[in-house]
Each structure stands twice: as C-alpha cells, then as structure tokens.
Amino acid sequence: MSRKIDDAISVLEAVAMLALVVCVGFFLSLGGFYGSTYSLRWADRHVVDLPFISNYETPAEMYSRLENEPDPTVTTKTEAFENLRDGDRIQPGFKYAVVSKADWEKSAHHAKASSCSYGWMLTSRTNPSRVFATTAGHCGEPGDVVLMDTPLGYERVGEFVSSVYDRSSRQHAEDWALIEFDDQFTDMVTANPYIDKTITGWVDPGSLPDNARICRIGFRTGLSCGSNLGPGYDDSVTFYSTYYSDNGDSGGAVFAYDPKSQSYKAVGVHNFRLGKKQVVGGYTSLEAVFDEYALELMTEAH
C-alpha cells in the first residue's frame, strides 16, 4: 500500500514538473516573439510589468539612461527668473502661498504657509469678470486660501475652488486645481508668463510630435525646456517631458512650440519630477480643466 502511494506521488511530481516546463517554454516563446514585434507605449511601461519582453525598459532604467545620457536639448535658466520668487505678482510661474482656511482665520497675515507656482490664467465663458488660475491639485484643497507676500505680511488674493488629486495613489495621474481670485485683485492678473514669447492659445499635447519643444516656468528654478516624451497613464491627460524642476515649481505653466501653427501654445500644469537629477517632469493637460468647466485661456489679447 505504501509503495502504491509513493508511486502515485512520483507520478504527480512528474506531471507538475512537465506542466512547469511547458509554462516556462510558453513564456520564453512570448519573450522572443514580443521582443521583436511588440512595442509598448512608454507610459504603459509604468503600469504593466512584463519582464519577459526583451526590449522592456523599466522606469528606473529610463531615468538612469536619461541621467547618464541627458537630453542635450534641455536648458534651464534660474538667475534671470529670480523675481518669480517675490510672489508680488499674479502671473504664470510666479510664487503664491497657500494656507488652510482655518489657519488663515486663526493667524491672519502671519499664518504658516506652503508655496507653489501659478499656472495659466483663465476666465469664465459665462461671466468674464470671474478670473481663475490653474495650479497643481496637490498644492491645495477647496477652501484653502491663496496669499500674496507683501511688506506687511501675507494678503489674501483668492482661494482654491476645485482640486483633482488622488492623495492615496502612488501613481502620477491627473493633478490640477483651480484658484479663483477675489474681485479686487482680478485687475492685477497678467496672462502671459514672464518670457519673451507670446502665448497665443492652447493645444492638446497629444497632438504634438515626438520631441516637440516643451517648457516649464516656476518660481523655484525659473524656466526649463526640453523634449516631449509623450502621454502618461490611462487617464490620457498626464504627459512627460525632459525638463528640470524642483520643489515649489508645482503648478507652474507648461507651454510648447507648436510646429503646425508655428507659435507658442499653453499645454498644461506642472505636477512632478522624476529621477535623482530631476531630468524628467510630468504635467496635466489643460484639456482636463476645459472638459470640467466652461473656462477659456486668457491671452494678451484679452
């Protein structure tokens, strides 16, 4: 009886080993097939793990490659944009401070604040007197108070009225917010960033060619430009580019040179940086904002 049991166990072990060999062979054949014919979008490589694909490049590998072989087109100008840190203007790229409504009511002009950068200026299609700014969703929540730094301390200029950001997710997905300015400060709003180019409108970054020129402006590191890397996660509104950024640049305006119109267009709001040397940045397309609200981009023509 014992010998029969041992024989049965041996048969089962042999069957299990055969099944394992078949599975390994199958996956290896997939690797050979897909490695030569299947191409994942760059962004998909962040959300699927297919190690049997021979031409697979993990995010860490990509960051390492870009850090060791940096994009030669990346440029960064900080000193010429140090005035963005003053926070005394309402303009794309300039610094603003933000505090919770409770802290503001408690401490008023001397509340402890965090800082981000203004994005693009927008107006309501139904009520043009209402003026907004885009920024990053992780910079604040609805009701948070937006402040301007003055010689007498902080002064309220508006508040967050919308914020889209999943604080529980580790993925770099949709991340944007809207600030509405108080009536007495709308006349201070400047539509064009602090650059020598005029922004003539906005364009969906998904329509831009590979390696299109993408620039970001924010108070921490000024102006940095690089190359378009394409779309990010499945939300289809997150995009990547090779440009430099640091803490405080979040929310800043992102724009591109559009070869079709041969002009400079707004494309999004800066959200995050990747890699040890911060050589890859991500931004949310303005399309996400326009899909949600009846707003239009302010330009110098307004």
Helix/strand class: alpha+beta
Report how far apart the termini are: 93 Å
Please, what is the average pLDDT?
78
As a whole number of angstroms, the C-alpha radius of gyration is 25 Å
What is the CATH homology-level superfamily of the largest domain? Trypsin-like serine proteases
**CATH C-level class of the largest domain:** Mainly Beta
What series of H and E elements makes up the topology? Answer: HHEEHEEEEEEEEEEEEEHE
Dominant shape: globular
Which regions have little confidence, pLDDT < 50, spanning 5+ residues? 24-56
Spatial ordering of strands, largest sheet: 3-2-6-7-8-5-4-16
The tally of beta strands, per DSSP, is 16
The CATH topology of the largest domain comes to Thrombin, subunit H
What does this structure look like?
The protein contains 4 helices and 16 strands. It is α+β, with helices and mostly antiparallel strands and 302 residues long. The protein folds into 3 domains: 2-58; 87-188, Thrombin, subunit H, CATH 2.40.10.10; 193-293, Trypsin-like serine proteases (Thrombin, subunit H). The strands form 2 sheets. An 8-stranded antiparallel beta sheet has the order 3-2-6-7-8-5-4-16. The chain has a 6-stranded antiparallel β-barrel with strand order 10-11-12-15-14-13. β13 (253-258) and β14 (263-274) form a beta hairpin. It starts with a helix and ends in a 5-residue tail after the last strand.
